[in-house]
Amino acid sequence: MSIHRWRSLLALPMLLAVLAACSSPPESLPTPSPAKAAVDYAAMGTMIENKISSGSLSLSTIDAVLVSVDGETKLAHYRNGSKPEDALHVFSVTKSVASALIGIAIQEKIISGLDATLPELLPRYGKYLTTEEKSITLRQLMSMTAGFPAGEPGDKIDRAFERTDPIPAILTGGLDWPPGEVFSYSNPGSHLVSAVLREALVRADGDNPRTVLEYAREKLFDPLEIDSSGAQERRVSLGDPAYEVLTNFDWGTDAAGLHTACCLLRLRPADMIKIGELYLGGGVWHGKQILPAGWVQQTMTPSELSSQYGLMWWLDLDVHGHQMWVARGALGQVIAIAPEHRMVVVIGSVPTTDLATDPDAVWPLVNEVIVPALG
Q: Which SS3 state, helix, strand or coil, does residue 183 take?
């Protein structure tokens, strides 16, 4: 018998053993987990409406609830006769938009960085800076740890917006806290963030500087296909009720023509979804890198003084304990980003002369209805 024949006979038992093993059930392999059931977004819309109807009367001012998953809008629930093309005042969601612009400006090196101080950032206003204010950094302004007062409609800071330039009034108005010691949410401090961007544009552009809105169009709104045309860009008081009932895009200014970073931006709910999707994508939207790489992570890193706030974005948890990033505006304006679910939720509200939505009443729509429906 040839040596090749012997080899074949010796190999036969081994081959049979291998075939037997292959035919046996693979006991060591994990059992596949069942696929998640498809989300019924029509039912979700009904649950949202039921939650609004059974809640406080102020919830009736909610005009829109939108849900996007993996970059696709799955639910667009409009109420009170509102239409997709209607823009609304997003109040402090404006802060989160301003934060994006600052990140872009730092990447373009027209702002040196987050640790630059006010004397460097606002040299034109150097004579108004107190000794304490001279140590304030851009990071402290954006993380609400600079120590500036809150500022509410009708107070002395709001009245300063009536003047030719309110920045000196903000700087000479004093601090409530020493810089870097206390988290203190501040509209005047946020307005200084806009002043920082404007002064950077003046230095970069020379005799014909871009406005904050023009910069936003070029770097953010146009790339996101947000229609920002038709803005009147006029001075608006922080408490002007006439501004709330408009339906066009706009961004109000102070008396000196500076678009405020604290509020007064008007966006459509679908525009708000795009901003949320941009952050969900790490600064990339539809394949376009709009925000600097790493800026989203930096933005959503809490300061040492507040675990619930990053750089002009709120940090929250969903009902399952997963991280959520939230742009939150007064009277019921929300962009909530849930990275765990690849989801963006937008809520837009328009106050009436008699009713305004309690922001605390809005969050249960996200955390008690929408997130649980995703499984």
A: coil
